[in-house]
DNA sequence: GATGAATGAGGCTTCATTCAT
DNA sequence: AATGAATGAAGCCTCATTCAT
């Protein structure tokens, strides 16, 4: 799986053939299929493994925060921090999620209706609105905007050598603060 | 090219084989290769064609605006409006840009250093800062955030039937306004 | 298809890989798949082609006969005569029919319920019974016996160099005559 | 071996991989190769085991009969009776015998020249002719006809749910009686 | 006695491309 | 201008077998 992640991150979805993955791992293609029932299984495993660890890290971080503003900030910070330390893994997952398709041609990993990841962020936003910490906005669409800013980062890391994740995190935090209106609330307190 | 765009939008990069494209166009594979020197040429043509028309639409829209705040707003509005009317084309370009790779394994259409599209938006932001209309922020990173919000929309249109581009545009405009600080400037005037 | 038949007849079902068939035809595997949509299609085509021609030959021969006894005799004679002139083709069809299986594991070409080939022979037998030419017997089971004697011949031709089809035909005709009781009818005339 | 027989009978020769056989037996592939030197050895063992027991049953049954007509009848009856009680085993053997081939491409289990099974039946027929019980016929070819009628039964059991072995046995016995002419002899006595 | 790990050969199929017409 | 024929590389996967434990 580690080698699969590397190849996916470096060579993209189409470049991640079993042959290439096996070559990188110094084993034969057959070994990969000995441990995974097929390529789909391998890719699924990568996705769920990374998703699982990322989700855990985020949940852990959020558990330390109480105010909605701090929760959102922790959410963004943890996401980008996880990305910093697991850049290739996130890159690999993005490649898989955006390219893997089933026999019917539909995306295999993109939820068609309700997206749990998005729904989670959306709820954090709504909580802030409920408590009066946040201004009025459409939580669904703002969640999409914030997620897109998070998801784009892994790509930037690859193509933009000058992309500094620390500064990006700071800028995004400030945008989120302004967008949610957290700032004003603190002012009025 | 029209059929290539349709197939790319519906079936993704891997599903867009010459055979499939030709089948949809009701012609033979050979015809495609008669008009384009190869698959790469076909994809390039699609990218440049769409990019060209999108760029033209944006340039035209910006020429009507004068203040930095209005320019940025027009930029966002025109981008999303173009997407609304050319959803498949944008989707196709995204598929190509994020997947096409040269023989060396590097992305074919993602500029490695300076990204002209990003640089353009970045400059609009800097102009607003220069004129005092915008607050202090890192123009490069904010540009990335805004672009990501724009680019994610084409994907949402595909998987999320409830995604309403009009509301999304409104929300994004409001975020951009807050993020650039355009609002406050107007307040103080 | 001719080469596929040859390989099937000589090397059996498992030996009849696309590679081997293509090698024998002096072409590349791809060419086979250019003319047939897949291996299944190739095998189907062989089966239906041979079946069609055999069925036509039999129908033609039966049309010249009137009495039930002569019809059955013509049926047997034509079947074995067709086999004599198209030994490899029959051998190939037998290999396919008895080995080809669908994804669910069931035979692809063996009719699960009503077997039209068997039903045809069965009806010939029943006609003879209806007209009083034949004795009492179970038409279904006798049809199975006669067909098995016909079908076994192609295998014999392969493994038994001393197998002489002319003599076999004569013996089988005599058995069929005795089994149907055609003989007695002639006695009573 | 029991599981190998089941798989062969249900899934056919191509479906009978070591993996599948081991899976059904609830053991690992390695165990199979620990007890048998290879797949060929496993299949050989199945063939000889079943052949041995079938031959024994037949020999035992024949030893109770004296007249040629009764011997032939017992031969047919015992063959089909054994099939009834060991359908899967016979089916498995048929699959192996008709498909297994050596490296040179020739059948592994089909005797190229003299077939002992056929020769045995042939001799029974000749004995009947020698004693004057049977009419004149070509013993070799009649033996082939009778064997084919016996061998086809295992296949019928699989594809034809309405195939009733008892009735088939009765019909075949009657055909054999007529074909050998046993009946007339008894009449004239 | 039993097994998990690993492998290389081979199977079917898809694909972008070349060539002659 | 258009196309059918042909190809070789590559992709995923199955299989019988070997080896060390």
TrEMBL record, chains A, B, C, D:
Keywords: DNA-binding. Pfam families: TetR_N. InterPro entries: Homeodomain-like_sf (IPR009057), HTH-type_TetR-like_transc_reg (IPR050109), HTH_TetR (IPR001647), Tet_transcr_reg_TetR-rel_C_sf (IPR036271). Residues 17-36 bind DNA. Residues 1-54 form the HTH tetR-type domain. This is TetR family transcriptional regulator. It comes from Kocuria atrinae.
């Amino acid at each position: 799986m580690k080698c699969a992640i590397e190849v996916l991150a470096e060579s993209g979805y189409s470049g991640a053939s079993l042959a290439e993955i096996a070559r990188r791992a110094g084993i034969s293609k057959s070994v990969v299929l000995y441990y995974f029932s097929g390529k789909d299984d391998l890719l699924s495993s990568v996705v769920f493994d990374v998703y699982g660890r990322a989700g855990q890290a985020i949940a852990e971080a959020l558990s330390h925060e109480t105010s909605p503003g701090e929760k959102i900030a922790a959410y963004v910070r943890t996401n980008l921090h996880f990305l910093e330390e697991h850049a290739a893994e996130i890159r690999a997952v993005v490649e898989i999620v955006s390219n893997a398709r089933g026999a019917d041609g539909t995306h295999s990993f993109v939820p068609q209706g309700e997206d749990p990841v998005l729904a989670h962020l959306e709820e954090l936003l709504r909580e802030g609105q409920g408590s009066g910490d946040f201004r009025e906005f459409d939580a669904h669409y703002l969640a999409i905007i914030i997620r897109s800013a998070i998801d784009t980062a892994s790509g930037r890391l690859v193509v933009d050598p000058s992309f500094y994740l620390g500064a990006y995190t700071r800028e995004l935090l400030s945008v989120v603060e302004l967008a949610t209106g957290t700032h004003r609330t603190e002012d009025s307190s």
